[in-house]
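Researcher: Here's my situation. A collaborator sent me these components and asked whether they could plausibly form a single complex. I don't have experimental data yet, so a predicted model of the whole assembly would be a useful starting point for our discussion.
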Amino acid sequence: MAKVLLATRNQKKLGELHRILVAAEVEGIEVLGLADVPEFPDAPETGATFEENALAKARDAVLATGLPVVADDSGLAVDALNGMPGVLSARWAGRHGDDQANLDLLLGQLTDVPDERRGAAFVCVAALSLPDGTQTAVRGEWRGTITREGRGDNGFGYDPIFVPEGGTLTSAELTPEQKDAHSHRGKALRLLVPLLAPLAG
Amino acid sequence: MAKVLLATRNQKKLGELHRILVAAEVEGIEVLGLADVPEFPDAPETGATFEENALAKARDAVLATGLPVVADDSGLAVDALNGMPGVLSARWAGRHGDDQANLDLLLGQLTDVPDERRGAAFVCVAALSLPDGTQTAVRGEWRGTITREGRGDNGFGYDPIFVPEGGTLTSAELTPEQKDAHSHRGKALRLLVPLLAPLAG
């Protein structure tokens, strides 16, 4: 069975790509995570764009493992913050990966921002890098608005304060399947399916 | 002597406008601050731009006092943050006016941003609003780069982490006179001088 490495340690992202491949009836691909391959140095994400970071992450992982690699970089682009936190979403409060601190800071910054200017988009860029040097990056977006307090326990990151367009629930109140169907990451990963299918064996 | 109200409680801003009028040899104008007039309700700064906030602040103060009013809105526009903190500069860490928290947060957010992408500009929009309804807004900018740690005790806000173009000192290491000569606020206020001079009497 052909192996594809998803360059993440996040079990939820691994599950999401796996579900998407199953839903697209792509068989014969085993999705590995970073926990399944020998460790290699993580380059810091210093790019100015999601594309730059996702492509760099994918390229580094191909060089280290020789496998086809999918890598993503994603974040929340808030209109009233000119598209930030953007590439800094995971370290918005100044240190890496403290979801609650990031979300509390964002709500604090937007305290005086009125309802009609609380638009935002979750953005995901998924990059596919192949051992032959081929590189592709695709982008998925999910529009919505920022709430005034967090709600819901599903998901991660800014999910509790993001209400997708057309609904009233936050993305942390959706089931994983509902989220996959509409989310930025779901859209981006589905755009990669036609490129992944030929790798199946 | 004609009175002009500078809509601020900040003694440093009052001193700055006073020095600029003296330097421009505008005589016969007494600069008042908000501490010198009866209190009136402060509208929150909810505008999306410096111009919106400065004009609203000036207009409110004219309606409350009947005096010609100068108001400013200013902040730091960081390239790697798409121009933010911008209008949110004074409450970047989520609450209003905690200079040290704002500055520490900004340095934390920029930790992985390399030197060549640490450009920024201090921006000041100064608005003049007259009792006859005339409104004018002018903009001053001061380009520089963001340091990796704070230096200097002069100034306020983000001065300790901003090195103006063409020098090596932070704006908190400059004397008030050196700062006035180049700063965003100095530039904007000087652009108002030709409009203030006719008010002298």
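Model: Some features of this prediction you could bring to your collaborator: The beta strands of chain A are 2-6, 29-32, 69-78, 119-129, 135-146, 162-164. The radius of gyration of chain A is 17 Å.
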